[in-house]
């Protein structure tokens, strides 16, 4: 990370205000879309998408018929973008809050990770795993993508390896899937893990 930078809400709001959003894929990514597609008929599960940005996953699941999709995001601009694209998305499900401060009641059934973990200061990684476990019901799922690579530029994004990540999640989760994604978008091919973890 560059010296003097704090990755707070003002930092992220400025990134959106200046269109420095290279992470934004403009749509739900294929690994998550394929995962969502095999879930079957939509149900009332409570799904949290933290650090959601413009929240294409929320848009996708909302249109698929899931009524309980929640988005947590510190920056206002991407939430407004979501509401413009999806005017009937429930405003009360847009949580403009710090992920680490979210309450665990009622618990969530699923948390979706997409380019949020890599945006956090790496010192927060143990706390990320702990907070995901805190927010999920027993048996709940953490699903998503984690970079399994290093970056030459100062982060964010911050890279890492599956061995490093395993240690954060092992205390709280059973590993259902933790392998290199086979259907990543081009620039991320071979460089990210698809993870599906069940809370113990
Ligand atoms: C790299 S962006 C990824 C956004 C989105 N997931 C995507 O893939 O397009 C990281 C996002 O996390 C948000 N964020 C950073 N720290 C956060 C926190 N503590 N709680 C909630 N959101 C946070 C930022 O505002 C930013 O939108």
Automatic annotation (TrEMBL):
Alphabetically ordered keywords of this record: Methyltransferase, Phosphoprotein, S-adenosyl-L-methionine, Transferase
GO molecular function: S-adenosylmethionine-dependent methyltransferase activity
Keyword Electron transport set for record: no
Matches recorded under InterPro entries: SAM-dependent_MTases_sf (IPR029063), TPMT (IPR008854)
Any Pfam family hit: TPMT
Annotated PROSITE patterns: SAM_MT_TPMT
Biological-process GO terms, alphabetical: methylation
PANTHER family: CYSTEINE SULFINATE DESULFINASE_CYSTEINE DESULFURASE AND RELATED ENZYMES, PTHR32183
Protein name: SAM-dependent methyltransferase
Protein source organism: Hymenobacter taeanensis
């Amino acid at each position: 990370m560059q010296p003097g930078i704090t990755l707070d809400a003002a930092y992220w709001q400025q990134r959106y205000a200046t269109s420095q959003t290279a992470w934004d894929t403009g749509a739900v990514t294929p690994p998550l879309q394929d995962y969502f597609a095999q879930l079957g008929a939509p149900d009332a599960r409570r799904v949290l998408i933290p650090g959601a940005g413009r929240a294409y996953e929320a848009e996708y699941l909302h249109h698929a018929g899931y009524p309980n999709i929640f988005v947590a995001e510190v920056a206002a601009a991407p939430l407004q973008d979501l509401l413009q694209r999806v005017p009937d998305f429930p405003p009360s499900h847009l949580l403009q809050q710090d992920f680490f401060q979210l309450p665990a009641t009622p618990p969530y059934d699923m948390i979706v990770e997409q380019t949020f973990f890599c945006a956090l200061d790496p010192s927060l990684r143990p706390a990320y795993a702990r907070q995901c476990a805190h927010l999920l019901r027993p048996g709940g799922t953490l699903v998503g993508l984690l970079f399994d690579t290093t970056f030459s530029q100062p982060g964010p994004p911050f890279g890492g390896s599956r061995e490093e990540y395993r240690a954060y999640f092992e205390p709280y989760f059973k590993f259902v899937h933790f392998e290199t994604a086979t259907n990543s978008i081009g620039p991320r091919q071979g460089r990210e893990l698809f993870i599906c973890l069940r809370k113990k």
